Amino acid sequence: MNKNLTLTVNGETHQVQVTDRTQLAEVLRDHLDLTGTHLGCEQGVCGACTVIVDGKPTRSCITFANSIDGAQIETIEGYAGDPVMIKIREAFSRHHALQCGFCTPGMLATSHDILNRFASPSEATIRHELSGNLCRCTGYQGIVQAIIDVASQLEMEGIAPPKLAQKKRGVRPSFTPFEPKFGNAPAQAAQHPRGSVRAEGNWTVVERSIALPHPLGNVWTLFSDIRAVAACVPGASLTEQDGSAFEGEVAIAFGPIKAKFGGSGTFEANETDHTGTLLGQGADNGGQSNVKGELRYVLTPNGTTCFTNVGVTFHFQIQGMLAQFNRPELVTGFVDFLLEKFISNCNAVLSGGTVSTSHKIGVISLGWAVIKSFIKRRRS
Ligand code: FES
Ligand code: FES
C-alpha cells in the first residue's frame, strides 16, 4: 500500500510516496537523487549507508521510510559549510584515510557523530564507535588518526562537542501506548509449534510455541506475575511496577555491541482465557537505538498430559544503530537462545528452585546461537 510521507532532508522538505517496505536509502538515492549515500551490504552490517536521522547515525538500508515520517535527515550532501566536517575531510585527506571512497560517506557521518558526542576521545573509544563501519581497502589506521587529529584541533580551539554522550545517559522515553494492536495473534502462534520469523508491514513478527512440563494452573501463576516472568528472562530486570505499568532494563552483549536497554510499558493478564499482553518501548543507554513492541501469549493445556503449551507472538521494531537486529537471521538465533534460557529458568521456578545465576546474556553463547541459526537458514 502506498503512503505519503514528509521528510526534511538537508533542510529541505520533501513529500514522498512509499510502500510499507521502502527503505530510506531507496528514498534518498532513487526518489531524491542523493546518491552520496552508498549501498554496500544492504543488510545493516557495513555502515556505508549511514545517515543522520533526528540526530542519530542510522543505517538507511534497513530503515523503513514509513517508520520515520516527519524525520529530519542529514546526508553526506548536507554537510557543505559545516566547520567540523570541513576539518574531518581535510584530515581524511592528510592521513590517507580513503582509497576507493566507497565507505567514506558513512565513515564521515560516523566521524562527525563521534566528534559531536565525545571531547578528546581516546583511540580505543574511536575504534569502538567506528566498529559498525567497515572499510575493505584502506585499513582503519588513517581514519582513526584523522579523527584524533580533528579532536585535538577542536580542543585547542576550545570547541566543545555539542552533544556529550554522558548527557544522553539515563534519559528514558516516557511510555505512550501505540497502535496497532494485533488481534488474536497468540491463538495463531499456539497452532504453529515450530514458529516463524517474518516481516509484516514495517514490523518484525516472531511466533513461537513452547511446552512446559507443569499443569496450566501453576504456569498461569507464573505468567500472570510480570515480576516473576522478568526474573526468568536472561539479562532482564523489573525496576518499578505500579499496577499495570512497569519500568525495566535488559542488558545484552554481542560482539562489539554492549547495550543496556531501559524502557517502560504496560502488562495485562486475563485469567478467563489465560492470555496476556505486554506493550513496551525503550532506548539503549547511549540513546542510539529505540525499540518498541507488543508481546502476546496464550496458555493452553496440552492434551491429557500435565504439560502446558505457551503460544507467543511478538511484534517489534528497532530503529537506530541496532536496527540490524530486525534481520531474520539475527532475530531467529537471538530468540532461540533467549527461549532456551527462559524455558530452563521457568522450569526451575515451577519446580520450586531458582533461576540460573548466569543471568546475563553472554557474548560467546549468544554469538554461537546466532551463527548456528544463520547456517541453518542458509542450508534450508
Ligand atoms: S549498506 Fe551496509 S549497512 Fe547499509
Ligand atoms: S576506502 Fe575503499 S572501502 Fe573504504
How would you characterize the overall build of this protein?
The protein has helices at 24-31, 83-94, 104-117, 123-129, 141-156, 165-168, 185-190, 216-223, 226-232, 328-350, 363-379, and strands spanning 3-9, 12-18, 50-53, 56-59, 72-74, 196-200, 203-212, 236-242, 245-254, 257-270, 275-284, 289-301, 308-320. The protein is built from eleven helices and 13 strands. With 380 residues, it is an alpha+beta fold. A hairpin with a 2-residue loop joins strand 9 (245-254) and strand 10 (257-270). The chain has three domains: 3-78, Ubiquitin-like (UB roll) (Roll), CATH 3.10.20.30; 81-168, [2Fe-2S]-binding domain (DNA polymerase, domain 1); 185-379, Alpha-D-Glucose-1,6-Bisphosphate, Chain A, domain 4. The model is unreliable at 165-175 and 184-192 (pLDDT under 50). Helix 2 (83-94) packs across helix 5, helix 3 packs parallel to helix 5 (141-156) and helix 10 (328-350) crosses helix 11 (363-379).
